[in-house]
Amino acid sequence: MNPQGPSPRAPFPKRHLLQISDLNRLEALELIARAETFLPFTQAREKKLSTLKGRTLVNLFFENSTRTQASFELAGKRMSADTVNMSVKTSSVAKGETLLDTAASLNAMGPDLLVVRHGASGAAQLLARKVGCSVINAGDGTHEHPTQALLDALTLKRSFGQVEGLIIAICGDILHSRVARSNVILLSMLGARVRLIAPPTLMPAQVERWGCEIYHSMRQGLEGVDVVMMLRLQLERMDGVFVPSAREYFRFYGLDARKLAFASKHVKVMHPGPMNRGVEIDSDIADDPRVSLIVDQVESGVAVRMAVLEALASHGANGVQGDD
Amino acid sequence: MTEPRIHFFNARLVDPASQFDGSGEVMVAGDKIVAVGPHVRPEPGATRVDCGGHALMPGLIDLHVSTGEPGEEHRETLKTAGKAAVAGGVTTMVLQPDTQTVIDDAALVDFIVRRGRDHSLARVLAAGALTLGLKGERIAEFGLMAEAGAVMFTNSDHPVVSSRTMQRCMAYATAFDVLITSRPEDAFLADGGMMNQGEFASRLGLAGIADVAETIAADRDIQLAQLTGSRLLLDMISCEATLGRIAMARDQGVKIKASVSVHHLTLNESDVGDYRTFAKLAPPLRSEQDRLALVEGVKSGLIDAIVSGHDPRPAEQKRLPFDEAAFGASALETLLPAALILYHEGLIELVELIGALTFGPAQILGLPQGRIAAGTPADLILVDLGFPIRFDASAMLSKSKNSPYDGRTMQGKVKATWVGGKKVYSAAD
Which region is the signal sequence (chain B) (predicted)? Predict the structure, then answer.
């Protein structure tokens, strides 16, 4: 296999990846296509490429994350970037100040790529204005998680051949989900029909304006869908503030074989992880390789992050400047 | 084997669902009404009931009843409440969740439903708690409780203080299309109040509960119902000012229903008199102007249901200084004769009045009973409308005999009651 990686593509027109809504359809397809070319390398025995040799990647995580951080770290290391992980505990006071202070120090270290996860919506945008490198949003508050949406799209493309025309139900805590927001925009952009299923207390206000079909019942919402994308419900949101209890949630909104039977025969199930087994998803489904794409999602994750790092690193190459 | 048949004849049929008030006959087979008409075809072997020209009407449906079961069985049990109910013409009653052990869980709803089925002569339906423990903090399990049979969700006499919690409850309820019930009262304004705020209260030296305590809460809940699309029952409203708000909300498409207690249609603040604790009710008895407006509300349809607000309190909770006495009245047995005061005074047509006691509440809950029509449950009462009574609270069947009507002359007596085609009560002549 070619240690240089897939054949080079044109420089990417965007400098940052802060939100899916910044991308147009062609750019989104380009990132997915790039990621597809990286897939064979993630499965090869010798995985090291030299694509980002000499570049510095900083993973700046203000929130705990295991898999996203590991995924970006692996992506960077496999492309030979110098990869640094910084886990910053968010202090409850003066968050904004801390973020900007951190940004100033980071800037002085001269990274090329900065991956950031933060508990506040808009944190990635703020950082992007203050640092001189490419910023990749790895999840900001309840706003967006663009690489998750891209990896979900890639997973769907691998499984179904294309995203266009699929009927996809996103179920669970839509209100607090950055994954849902990114996916709604990306999957709709790629031509899928997106349905949202959640109790009304976990739906954002005026969600009907998002261009999706809204359901409060799994039975109706899952009717004939090709894909069910389950979202994680934080345990602290199941104690009567948003939904009465975990048992009632599972009874009416947890994915089990009984509810999945309403979907189409070839239905596939996805989950961004980490799963609450027995709360939002039954183990029988999560672990069934005939319906579950959950492992594929993780695999796609590394390829997508490699593609994103490579694409943003290519920004500005050959004197081509994008519209950032 | 054919089902046992009952042939009611020589009756004045009162069926609000079809707006019918006239002579007719009814045939019952098993637990259902099978034929209604001026004359129904006689069936050999049918039990013949000569109604003697008295009124045969649907059994009353009471949307607001409390007992002490489980936890305070000395106040009332489902069995004693059932006896009192059928004697008062009530064939279906909805139990409030505010028992000592709050009905906020599917297993407890199931307990009430089963105990009611096994021990009460009247049909028992359960209202589930709106919030866990009625504390106004956490949404109760509407979905699981509805599956267990809960027909509505209410915080009873414990207003939900947090508007956000109320909003979330209503929003959550729309997923299951369940009915949210609120007895509108601003907890802070009503705190410590004993009776209607006004001249009477100030002369008596009793702390008042202003009518705005009701309208502020009603405004909030109406707006939240509008925002969330939830179905809302404003329970036991007491003020004229609330009626205007209901009318306006309905014009705007809010799915809102309203009920009133029979006390607020027939008594006013002056009935507190010289500190009569039997007239200490929640919400408090209001002014005469409010009372007349509420009667008008029943006539116009702004108010859908008349309830008893049955709240049995043993003597030791009532024979106390007014400030210390419990709120509430035992009312299952007085619901019908008290409501008939309005009919006998010529304030309302019989069919309109009975409508708010039968078909109106049935519509709110989507129940098949509450009407006299073929195919519906044979829940019937035979009433001697003009029978004079001097109400004697000490003769009540309810375990607690606290009634503001004690000693009052009224007209109207239930002669017999059938639930599901079974005769469950027959008055001693």
Answer: none
